[in-house]
Amino acid sequence: MPEYLNLETWSRRLHFDFFRTYDHPFFNVCTSVDVSNLLDLTSGNEDISFFIAYHFLSIKAANEIEPFRYRLQGERVLVYERIHAGTIILLPDETFTFVYFDYEGDFAGFHTRAKATIARALAGGPRLDERATREDLIHHSVLPWITFTSVAHARKYGVEDSVPKIAFGKYSAVGDKVMMPVSVEAHHALMDGLHVARYFERFETYLADPFAALGL
């Protein structure tokens, strides 16, 4: 069950108070990660989707960095025990819809459920607002057509939103590696660049040895 963070003992209490009332309290960090080994594992393997695999490794890493599970609720901070992944898929008419992958820690089960979720979405659902009020998510997005160097997300001002947003771009060869741009946008009242760096470090560790990270 989610519980509230004890702000009186939180080392970031001053930073929380400082950034919480900013008109635009979000910061963005963008870098590229090496996906060579994950591509080697999934290329030509019909049993493992590269798309689903990197979403799993991203949400696995995010769950293990506690501030990614913090959500702002007025003057308090709710800490979720576990967070899940929302992402987008392209539809045949070149619009998109949102899909949601529940994270349970087991890749085989995650992969099976994710494939079924994508199939249902391609067949005509879900609605864009299916989990609009859920905060126990990381909002993933994908831009597989471009190798970006920065990303800005749509925001609805006047609505409290502290869900981190992670975007994945087009991977490309860089020397003997294949690199994919990844953008992380987070609420500065809840985390700093240090925490985003720890997410990237964990994510890159899993990408370096995907066989072990996926439990294969």
CATH H level, superfamily name: Chloramphenicol acetyltransferase-like domain
The first-to-last residue Cα distance is: 30 Å
Kindly report the average pLDDT value: 93
Indicate the CATH architecture: 2-Layer Sandwich
Helix coverage percent of residues? 25-40%
What's the count of strands?
10
Structural class: alpha+beta
CATH domain fold name: Chloramphenicol Acetyltransferase
Kindly give the count of domains. 1
Elements, N to C (H/E): EHEHHEEEEHEEEEHH
The level 1 CATH classification is: Alpha Beta
Report on this model:
The structure is a single chain. By secondary structure, the chain is an alpha+beta fold. It has a single domain, classed as 2-Layer Sandwich (Chloramphenicol Acetyltransferase), CATH 3.30.559. It has six helices and ten strands; from the N terminus they run βαβααββββαββββαα. Strands 2, 5, 6, 7, 8, 9 and 10 form a seven-stranded mixed sheet that branches. It has a three-stranded antiparallel sheet with strand order 1-4-3, with no helix packed on it. α3 (50-64) packs across α5. It starts with a strand and ends with a helix. The mean pLDDT is 93.
